[in-house]
Specification:
By secondary structure, the chain is α+β, with helices and mostly antiparallel strands. The protein has three domains: 10-101, no CATH class; 106-213, 2-Layer Sandwich (Tetrahydropterin Synthase, Chain A), CATH 3.30.479.30; 218-277. It contains seven helices and ten strands. The strands form three sheets. Strands 7, 8, 9 and 10 form a four-stranded antiparallel sheet that branches. Strands 1-5-2 form a three-stranded antiparallel sheet. A hairpin with a 5-residue loop joins strand 8 and strand 9. Helix 1 runs antiparallel to helix 2 and helix 6 (215-255) runs antiparallel to helix 7. The termini are far apart.
Length: 293
């Protein structure tokens, strides 16, 4: 693999000043030689002035600028020579080919992908990936187009992650895309980062931005979620009601407000559970007799 190495350069401002002065001197020599062209030796002066002017123009092509968080990758006839990261105006061999690489932090959102989760349910999923180039040489020479490579590999990693987890866990000890967002995001970041290292790219963050069941099963899965929520709520209600009934019987027994045999306790428990667990408001019933009549 081609690793980034630093390229030494000259001051671009100094080179620009020297070359402009040289170009001006060659123009002055050319004008002077043309005026004295009747003398044989002045023809040589014209040729030298023209050659010097074109040499100065070619040398000026060696000037290039590098901005903050940018890198300039330099090649000489196809051979990688080094990278310049220092911001400012630089001068190097004018025959070097130059390619500018942004080292800034970038982000993008993947397309909404339709995949099957671990349980085979079709879902729609998308993610936001934050990344940056850390090795300009690898980004240039190890892959054909590093930006497209980032997009394609990120989507491939997201598809692979989606198939490893269920959309929603119906058991407490199982992981899911919806219930374990931090863990899923961490694993997604690690997987994308492993895929992009060969391109000189570092993944700073990766998080799921869209997660939903596919439209064809969305209604059925919504009903399933609602049923699960109702069952869970009923369990909590029953647990609370039993606790309240137990507390009521214990307080009546401790304060000796009324003596209850087993049949009266059963009737009281039944009535309290109906009141506490019922969805509708209770209707009072006045009993003028006893439970034995």
């Amino acid at each position: 693999m081609i690793k980034e190495q630093t390229q030494s350069t000259q001051s671009g401002l100094l080179a620009l000043l020297v070359l402009l002065l040289a170009a001006g001197a060659t123009v002055a020599l050319l004008v002077f030689s043309i005026r004295e062209l009747d003398q044989p030796e002045r023809g040589i002066g014209v040729a030298i002035a023209i050659a010097g002017f074109f040499a100065a123009m070619i040398a000026l092509a060696g000037n290039f600028s590098v901005g903050p968080n940018e890198a300039m990758v330099l090649q000489l006839f196809g051979q990688y020579t080094g990278t310049v990261r220092t911001p400012g105006l630089h001068w190097a061999n004018p025959f070097l080919s130059k390619r500018k690489i942004s080292m800034r932090v970038r982000n993008f959102e993947t397309q909404h992908l339709k995949v099957n989760d671990h349980e085979g349910n079709p879902i729609e999923i998308a993610a936001v990936v934050v990344w940056k180039v850390y090795d300009s040489a690898e980004a240039c020479f190890e892959v054909d187009n590093y930006e497209n490579y980032v997009h394609v590999q990120s989507e491939a990693a997201l598809r692979n992650l989606a198939t490893a987890y269920a959309y929603d866990a119906h058991e407490e000890d199982k992981l899911s895309l919806r219930g374990n967002t931090e863990l899923v995001a961490s694993q997604l970041k690690t997987e994308i980062d492993d895929r992009l290292k060969k391109a000189g790219v570092e993944v700073l963050e990766a998080r799921i931005s869209h997660l939903a069941y596919s439209p064809e099963i969305a209604q059925a899965m919504l009903q399933r979620q609602q049923a699960s929520a109702i069952i869970a709520a009923r369990q909590k209600i029953v647990e609370g009601a039993v606790g309240m009934v137990e507390m009521a019987l214990e307080m009546l027994s401790r304060k000796k407000l009324v003596e209850l045999d087993e049949e009266r306790k059963a009737a009281m428990v039944s009535n309290l559970l109906v009141v506490l667990c019922g969805e509708r408001a209770t209707q009072p019933v006045i009993n003028t007799g006893t439970i034995y009549q």
